[in-house]
Design a protein that fits this description.
single chain; alpha+beta; two-stranded antiparallel sheet; globular
Length: 120
C-alpha cells in the first residue's frame, strides 16, 4: 500500500512541476533541468584541465533571444556560471563569468560564440 501511495505522489509531482523546470514551450523549447552537470560536460573540451575545474551556477535558467552569426535569431535559454580552472602553467585562474546558451535542454554555445544575447 505504501508503494502505491509513493508512486502516486511521484506521478502527481511530475504533473504539477513548476513551468520552466522541465517543461518547455514552442518558442523556447525545453529548459535546462540538470544544467550544472550538462555545463560541466560541455566545458570538457574548452578547458585546459576540465577535471579540476570548479563550476558554480550564478543564475537560474532564463529566456533569451540569440543573434547567431549570419543574422539568424533564435529563442533559447541561458544560464550564468562562474568557472575557476587550472592554467597550462599549473596555477589557478580567478573565477571567470560565462553565459551558456541552451536549446532543447542541451548546452550549445557560450555567449562569446554568438553575435549577441538579449535577456527576455
Amino acid at each position: 500500500m505504501r508503494k502505491l501511495f509513493g508512486a502516486l505522489a511521484i506521478t502527481m509531482m511530475a504533473f504539477t512541476a513548476p513551468t520552466g523546470v522541465i517543461a518547455g514551450d514552442d518558442q523556447f523549447g525545453l529548459s535546462p533541468a540538470a544544467c550544472e552537470e550538462a555545463v560541466v560536460h560541455y566545458l570538457d573540451d574548452r578547458l585546459y584541465d576540465s577535471r579540476s575545474a570548479r563550476v558554480h551556477l550564478s543564475s537560474d535558467p532564463y529566456k533569451v533571444q540569440v543573434a547567431m552569426r549570419g543574422a539568424t535569431e533564435v529563442s533559447a535559454w541561458a544560464v550564468d556560471i562562474l568557472v575557476k580552472s587550472r592554467l597550462p602553467t599549473g596555477s589557478w585562474s580567478s573565477y571567470q563569468n560565462y553565459t551558456v546558451i541552451f536549446q532543447n535542454g542541451a548546452p550549445v554555445a557560450l555567449e562569446s560564440d554568438v553575435q549577441s544575447v538579449t535577456a527576455i
